[in-house]
Amino acid sequence: MEYRNKLVLAPMVRVGTLPFRLMAVDYGADIAYGEEIIDHKLLKCERRVNDALGTIDLLEKGTGSVVFRTCSEERNRVVFQMGTSDAVRALNAAQMVCKDVAAVDINMGCPKSFSISGGMGAALLTKPELIHDILTTLRRNLDTPITCKIRLLKCSQDTVELARRIEKTGISALAVHGRKVPDRPRDPAKWSEIADVVSALSIPVIANGDVFEYDDFQRIKDATGASSVMVARGALWNASIFSPKGKLPWDDVKKEYVRKVFGLC
């Protein structure tokens, strides 16, 4: 997986499903992250090839509910994002899906109480030893590229120091959301602090925060020096943000999404 000069769909809970990812790719996304899946949940699944739909499904045992679905069309673009707080459990879960995706990402930035209380997401930011354990365990045991996504720490130097420790684990790229844990979505993303991380690392850095128009992809790259750019809310509001021709009317995007959904039914 190449992480330089890419437009990236961010992981979004209840949004980053297969139809939405395929639509984003059609509009111009180079890489599409799936919604975060917790390792505990994945370990309760079984892998099934769905010949009727042409998909690979991770189904919850007992209920048959689809926990994660992918297909060959996105095989070289989809990133599986995992929530975890344990290296061995993360490895066991990743082994279930790593052959069907382009990369595996560990969520280290989610500030929601569910993640924090479970020691996942942004809770990992204060546990650099555990971060090292999780990432090195995955790197040593999987051929699949491993990445992670973090938020900014209280001061820029702390973020840089953590990013350097993460880089030493041998991951392929680091995504940085330009907000701190207490920040709200309405608070401006701190592009200058992403730039501090970029200047300190040699691996690709994916900048995330306040991308709402196609031109913002270049603006944040210029401001931060990041290798690639990730968009969340901008894509949620209109997935055609990835198109260099400009965003399509919302009704057109909505109809395309419905076509994608029914194409997988």
From TrEMBL:
The keyword Magnesium does not apply. Pfam families: Dus. Keywords: Flavoprotein, FMN, Oxidoreductase, tRNA processing. Residues 9-255 form the DUS-like FMN-binding domain. GO terms for molecular function: flavin adenine dinucleotide binding; tRNA dihydrouridine synthase activity. The keyword ATP-binding does not apply. GO terms for cellular component: cytoplasm. Its cofactor is FMN. Gene3D superfamilies: Aldolase class I (3.20.20.70). This is DUS-like FMN-binding domain-containing protein. It comes from Cuscuta campestris.
